[in-house]
Design a protein that fits this description.
six-stranded mixed sheet, four-stranded mixed sheet, 4 helices, 14 strands, globular
Length: 191
Amino acid sequence: MAIKREEVPKRPANYAEYLLTPEGERWEIIEGIPYNMTPAPSTEHQRIIGNLHGEFYSYLKGKPCSAFVAPFDVRLLADGKADDQVKNVVQPDISIICDPNKIDEKGCLGAPDLIVEVLSPSTAKKDRSEKLRLYRLAGVREYWIVDPLNKTVEVYDWTQHRFAEAQVYGAEDRIQVAIFDDLVIDLGDVF
């Protein structure tokens, strides 16, 4: 049964409803719970995303992986499900996807290889709890939580072990990206 735009609830609970939300509204859905993505992030938040995306973009030129910045829909735990059954749609700040078969006209269907979330006061708790759990469960290989206030990056490297604890790096450190053998990012260039 198709949902008509006028029947969409103000808070979408699945991907079918999400697709019908008005232009300009940004939502994420985690386990069927909608989260409003407004207000817009701070200037510092956007600067950090731009710096990190630049590092990834430069490295990935000519390689099979792609880097995407939000807004970019990532549908998790959605394989083989109809849109009205998909209960997890997120918009990570940066998504690195190495399987081109996961990329479609709607975004990404499946787990990106690496996800970066830059904390905002309104998203920090969700990024460190619900999203952390969801990303681990969905099969994301590496997850970075960037804290602009403290100038730190928590890196969860799940390439070898699904329950590995985070390594924390400061602005003076360099991070060896786990999913790429030859990419090291100097956090001095990010912060």
